[in-house]
Amino acid sequence: MKTFVRLTALALALVFCVAGFAACNGTGDKVILIGGSGPLTGANSQYGSAVLNGAKLAVEEINAKGGYNGYTFELDMKQDDCGTTQAENAYYALEEAGMKISIGSVTSGSAKAFADAAREDNLFCLTPSASADNVIASGNHSFRVCFGDPQQGTLAADELVTNKGFAKIGVIYDNSDDYSTGLYQAFEARMTALNKVKGTDYVVYTFDSDNKVDFNQQVTGIKNAGCDAIFLPIYYAEAALIAKSAATFEETKNLPILGCDGLDGIAAQLDSSVVAEVRYFTPFDINSTETNVKTFVEKYREAYGLDPNQFAADAYDAVMIIYEALVAGEIDVEGTASEICNALAAQLTGGTFKYSGLTGDNMTWTTDGAVVKEAKIVKVQ
């Protein structure tokens, strides 16, 4: 089976080879090929496209400064449609094209498959956005820029119970999605601990990938349970539909809504019917007055005609982290992928390397690949 996957990937690499990649153009240019995969078309393309766009801006800035030790950066991001087989095929196609460093994949399921394939070659992966624990558990080569699911689920429980003092919380999550399920499980574990002290109650309702259009049943359950807050560990498209449904009931229209970083982008999906306070955890605030954030937002809008979200900012930071770690460690990129991986991993976990960017200041990494940085809560305007 593996042989078939590799042959398929090689065929794809030959078919999709484009001018600009050193492995294909025959010009002899010295390039560092950074690969990745994500959903670039279809229902989830807003996430993949944002990662691609943010990473491209970083590559352009690095190359404008002269690249690294005579090398320019090249970015190749393959379509994986959030699928595990597609992500694995993408990895092997990129490997054949000469990839030595990667930004992994966008969503957790495909990122796990990508990182598992990369483990065989000990090739460095730094995913901007895949938050499931099993992504970085793939090996010492796998790291992430975004918060992990346990971090956010725990923070959400603390915010709702300890900081806000809500007595009964209504939860709606997607039991067919790794991201949503991981967030909920961490929230549940923290709530179990908090309930021993605070006595806070919560009710839980679910949906799946085949049933995420009408949330009237779940919202009605929250209404009948007498909840005083709503926690949505899901993505923004479904969260917006839930917020609109909650707005139709007198009992739920004013209930504050809290989500995690998947709610980044919800503002554009809401309408005037939603009067409740909507907040979410994020490492990136588009309205920040910090100079680097303002500059990034301006460049992103100029390049793409869109507002950047957290996915774009995390991807920009991912490429910049790779670049700054190469510089800090004076890493020889003419080495093998495994040698480069070991050097990059040593930089991130060595105790001296810190990165300050769009999604956090003084970021560091644990030996298991998790990022350490401060979370922010953004209120939807």
Percent range for helical residues?
40-55%
User: Which CATH architecture of the largest domain?
Assistant: 3-Layer(aba) Sandwich
At the first level of CATH, what is the class of the largest domain? Alpha Beta
Strands ordered across the widest β-sheet: 7-6-8-9-10-14
For the largest beta-sheet, the strand count, sense and barrel status come to:
6 strands, mixed
CATH superfamily of the largest domain: Response regulator
SS strand fraction? 15-25%
| Number of extended strands | 14
CATH topology of the largest domain: Rossmann fold
The separation of the N and C termini measures 50 Å
Q: Would you mind describing this structure in some detail?
A:
By secondary structure, the protein is of the alpha/beta class. The chain has two domains: 2-147 and 290-374, 3-Layer(aba) Sandwich (Rossmann fold); 149-282, Rossmann fold, CATH 3.40.50. It is 46% helix and 18% strand. The strands form three sheets. It has a six-stranded mixed beta sheet, sandwiched between helices. A five-stranded parallel beta sheet has the order 2-1-3-4-5, sandwiched between helices. Strands 11-12-13 form a three-stranded antiparallel beta sheet, covered by helices on one side. Strand 12 (360-365) and strand 13 (371-372) form a beta hairpin. Helix 4 packs parallel to helix 5 (108-121). The N and C termini lie far apart (50 Å). Mean pLDDT is 91; it is low at 1-27.
